[in-house]
Every structure is written in structure tokens, then in C-alpha cells.
Task: structure prediction
Amino acid sequence: MTMKRNRCLVPILAMIILLIAGCWDAKDIDQRSFVMGVAFDISDTDDQLVMTIEIPVLTSFATQTQGAQSAKSLVIATTGTSVAQMATRFETRTWRELFFGHTQCIIIGEDLAREGILPIIDFFDRNPRVDRRLTLFIAQDKADQIYHVKNPLEALVSVALNQMLNTLTNTTRVVKRNFQEALRDLESNGDTVLPRVRGTDTEIVIAGGALIRDYKFTAWLSENETRAVAFLYNSISGGVITANVSDTIYSYAVRNAATDIKPVLKDDELSFKIKVKSEGDIIETYHKGSGGTTQFDIPKIQDKLNQIMADEIHHLLAKLQELHADPIGFDRLVKRHYPAFWKEHAKDWKEKVWPEVKFEIITEFNIRRTGILERVTVYEKQE
Amino acid sequence: MQEVTIVIVNMIMGVGTIGLPSALARIAGQDGLIAFLAAVAIYIIGTVFVIWLAQRFPDQGLADYSTYLLGSVPGFIFNILFALYMTAVISGIVREFAGVTKAFLLLRTPIEAIIISMLFASSLLARNGLEPIARACQILFYILFVPYLATPILLTVFDPGEFLPLFQHDLATIAKAAFSTAFALAGIEVMLVLGSHADNPKRLMRPALLAVAITSVMTLTLIVLSFGTLSVAQTAKLTDPVFEMIKFIPVPFSILERSDIFFFTVWIASTYSTIVIALFTTSHHLAETFKLKSSKGFVWPICAAVYFLSLVPKNEIEAGMFNDTLVVAWLILVYGVTPLFLIISLFRKPQESSKRRKPKQKKANS
Result:
């Protein structure tokens, strides 16, 4: 009886295996348009949005073909009133489904960012396929220009942008903030700092930052201000700081850095103690004058570095207070450490409390090595 | 008793685990952590009630001792209600599983196809009795356990400050969060039916509490990581924060483009084991209720009922409301009916051994 039943079961199971092996969601790679980068602007002619996307031409990567006829990417644009609407409109131009799972960067134009970035990011925040490690940029001027940059070294602008930001070790003048981190800041108090990008005909430059206040672009931050932001965000992983001591420029390569921020509430007066610690090497001494050699004055160079960073951070914080913006999240620290004070002042934090806050900044830069020149390498001026 | 622990862990760890951090953060913010610990305390009390009852009737299943304690007609009605509750629980699990799978993995696949595939695969194992289920659960336990251990080590983004300040919500809010989330740990009630199949039902308490401890630590790990990695605000906003958190595990040499897919596999495996155990429990309980030798014949009808019931909610919001109703039913069962049975059993002393016919089942080995 059991044998008979098994004999019946085998063909049924075989049928099931054959029938359910297929997949409704099967989509071959050539049937998808992988959107590697997206840019948003305001239309020059009306109030509509302009969405520009960069799609790689997969066949050109596969065949390694070169020349004018073998473009590596396709940059197309459409207009509309919402992101989803524009994304759908692209489908009237290509039968391949737009896929945002590999999107590396979203660039928002300066004018549009001034109106607010929240409506733009909602589409990506809501989409489960979007990788939250992508980067949100603010473009100086128009965002779509960035995707039209023809850099002979780079096949895809969006990939180049993301790689640049994630592998930047030679400068501290950008702020590394992925989509998730930016969302975390924005949902906390509506403020953050996003990397600034600008393009020329042949190159893309990521430097400086865009200050976002209440989801709206408010001001550009210079490269030095952005460096201070990077220190306060604790996102420094390298870079060079130059210090001029007795007419000799010392290049200090940051090997590691850590910032600790603590709120202090004394007699109902709020202040923050900011402690920046860094270790690094002197990788160059630059002096134009002729002369002999002298000793490395390590304490003096360290003092200068300490002063430079303390001044930069002071300058940045004064600017942020003036603009009533708190992208670093000092408010979160107050909420965590002094919840009663926070409850009392949460409503007027940005307008009244934040601009009056005092800071104590302690910087501690330590020079560990001076390259392979172990002794004196600086020439003294001969008068 | 190792198998008892593993079966309970597999029953508890299921579909609801991924949404739990979100529910806690939404109701109680950073106090969600306190609420979860309170939920565990509440759950331990429930576990003690269930195991005490199972120990009072070591040779009988729920269907047997409920009729003994309540009388044949009320007992029969209760047994049918319990079977309906279990069917509804499986429907809730299957529906949530299908919803999440559709949203994250199979966008175009009809929800019906996802439900049928899961029920079909689960029923194959559920029809084969407790012994193969326990063996399968042992394998699945290790598949589950390794990623849970590895995730905290691999995640590089974590802000411990996210847990401060604590105790900012009133007690009522924390209690609401605790009771709502205790259901995510639901599963111990299967021991009302399966308790008598343990090798030594008199010694069930230790493995049951050990299972609760293991699942609590595993779930707590996910909550802590979600809060610290994504922030409490983000966790509250996302429907399934654990999947988003997993994406932040850096994969060296680009071995995997999407690390969350690996966690999906683990989650599907844990959901599968929950459904299998629940299906078996329901079918076995019905077999005991109707005094049948085998419970196999009930598995397919239960699957059919589950299929149709799981399609009743029209959307995810209605599915959430359906689950809220189940929370109430679960609270009544574990904290109302079980203590009531315990009290009645003080007056109606258990029989030495059941003379009723029981479906044939091998005892779970120690």
C-alpha cells in the first residue's frame, strides 16, 4: 500500500518541482537598467523637477570597446512633480526596468536644495532595495552637470564620486556622510552637513560642505570649516594638516583622530567640552630659504596644530550658532545627559539656547614619527 | 531535554523578531530596551504557568486534561477554540512572512504563491511527526545561532549614546510596549500540547526557561544593535529595521553584493521552523481532541484554513490589526486560561495516567 502511494507521489512531486521552479520575479541582468546615479534640479522654465539618471551601458563594459560610438554610460533626464512620477516616465524611453538597488549617489542641485530636500529623499528612504550606504551630495549650481562631466579616466561619474569619497585619505576637507547617517541627523533635528560637489568639463571636485538646516540648504561651508565638521563628526580617517612654524611649513598626516564631546550644565548654564585627539606623522617640511639644519621642535609644531584646529572648530561653531543650525547634534547630547533641561528647552533650542552655548575646546595633536629622516631635516634661514 | 529547548527556541524565534525593535522604539523610544526586559519578565511568568500545567498532567495533552478539568462539552469547545487560535496564529505568521518577502525579495510574485510555497514545504515536515521536526530544529538552530553571534562583531557602526536617557516614558507606556512585544516571543503555549511528549515531563521547567533565556538574549542583541546602528528614531520609522541594519555589515572583497540576503535566508529558515512546529501542534491537538491515532490527516485541512485566513486582511495595516487581536487571545490563553486550569487542577487532582487513546508519537529524546 505504502509502495503504491509512493509511486503515485513521485510523479506528483516531479510535476511540482518542474512547475514551481520558475519565478515571477526572474529578471535577467540585461532586462534591467541599473541606475548608478541620480540628480535632481528645478526646471529653468517652470516649477517642475528635473530628474537625471546615469545608467551604465553594460555591453560596453563586457566587450571593452572604446571610441565615440561606445559610450560607457547613458545620461537621460525627465521632468515631473514627484520622484516616483519621474522614475515612471523614464519607462516610456527604455523597456528595461529602472533598478535603484545599486545607486551610488544622489545629487541635489543648489536651487532645489534651498527649497528642501525632504520630498526628494522620501522616495529613496521608502524603497527597500535602495542601499543606504549611498551618498547624498549637494551640487554647486546644477546637479545634472555633474553627470555630463567627461573624465577620460572614469567610465561612470556616480561610481567615481562614491569611490572618491570613500577612499579619500589625502584630504580632510570633505565630510563623509552616507545616506543612513544623513537621515539619522536629519530625523533628529533636520540639520546635517552634506558633501559639496562641483564639476568642470573634465573633472569632478568634492570639497567643502553644504549646511542643511531644517531640511533646507542654508549655506556653504569652506574646506577648512568642513574639516572642523569632519573632526566633530568623528569621521576623520586620514588627510594632511599644514602648520607654519617659524616660516617652515610642516605637513602633518593624520593617522587617527577621535573627538569626544560632553555637555556640561553648571548653574543652569550649558556649555560643551570638546576634546580632539589625534596622532600622526610629519611627512614634509617645506622651507624656501637657504641655511643649515636645526632640531625638530616637536612641542612647538604640536602647539601650532592644536591652535589651528581649536581655531577652526571655534570658527565653525560660531558660524553654526549664527545660522541657528546644529548639524553636529549637540542637542542629542543634551537630551541624553540632561533630559530635564532638554524637556524645558527643547522647543527653543535652535533659536535661543544653541546660539548662547559656550565651548571649551581642548586639542591634543601628537606627532609620532617624522618620516625616514630620523633627525633634523629643517633648514634654517641664513640672514 | 536538549531537544525541548531547541524546539521552543525555534518556535519563539520567528517572523516577528525582525519587526520587534521597530515596535519597541515606536511605543517607548529608547525605553524600548526596558520594555523588552519587562516583556521577558512577563513572558517568564507565562512560561512558568504553562510548564506547571504541563507538569501537572505529564501523561496527557491539552485536549485530554482540558475535558477532564472543564467537563466534556466545555472542554471540547475549549479545544476547538485552541485549535482555531493556533490556526489564526499560523495565518498571522504566514501573512507577515509573505508580506515581508514580497516587499523585500519577490516584488512581483503573488502573495498567494508565497503563502502556498511556505505552507507546502512546512506541511511536508509537519506530517512526519515530532521526531523529524526536533531533528530539523536542531540543524536550523545552528543556522540561526551563528549569524546572531557574528552580527555584533561584524557591525562597525554603533552609537551607545542612543540608549540614553532611560526611563523617560511613564510606566503605562512601558507596560503597553512590554505586553505588545511579549507576543513576539509567543510560542511557549505549544508545550501545553507537546509537554507530555518530552522524555521526562516532570523536568520540563529547566529546558523551557533555558529556551526563553536563549531567545531573549538573541532578540535583545537584535534590539540593541538596531537602536545603536540605525538610531531609535530610524528604528521606529522602519517596518523591518533588522534587514536595514544588516546592510551595514561590511563584506570584504565584495564577496556578496547584498549581505542582507544572507540574513533573509536565516529569517526564512526560522519562520519555517515556527510554522512547522505550530502546524504539528495544531494537528496533534485536533487528533487528541477527536481521539484519533494519527494527526497526519489534519495537516492539509489546517493548511487550507491557514491559507484562506491569511488572505482575509486586505492590506498590511489590517494584517497588523489581525495580529493585535491575536495578542489579546494569547494573553487570555497564557495569563488567564492557564492559571485557571492550574487552580482547577488543585481541586480536581490529575489522574495517575491517561486511559484515553493518544495519537502515536515518539517521545522527544533527552
Notes: Chain B has a mean pLDDT of 86. Chain B touches chain A at residues 103-110, 113, 117, 120, 161, 164-165, 168, 230-231, 233-234, 237, 243-244, 247-248, 257-258 (CB under 8 Å).
